[in-house]
Amino acid sequence: MEIPEFTCLCPKTGQPDFATLVLDYVPDKRCVELKSLKLYVWSYRNQGVFHEAVTNRILDDLLKALTPRFIRLTARFYVRGGIFTTVVAEHATRGWKAASLPEFVEHAANAGACNTR
Questions:
Q1: Is 8 a catalytic residue?
Q2: 60 is catalytic
Q3: Active-site residue, selected from the candidate residues 17, 24, 28, 114
């Protein structure tokens, strides 16, 4: 899933931060409902959080709600102070091994945006 409109606030300056979130996961018994995910992501819009902290918090919340076999959240933050930031957090269930994890293709709409993979 690609979420190109993630926003939060810099906890030091209050300036808005913008990111594209890419969620890759292998479900077990539960999966995420897209509208719920959208509303959850929107809940960060007015929160002051650091890039690494918010990426890990979202992954932890999804991990708790879904208990997937594998989950990876890539947060590609747009430029702030002349620097693009990409934060990747992932988790795999103990003992779970994929034959191979697929490569995920970015949507064409984001081809020229912050591509830091």
A1: no
A2: no
A3: 17
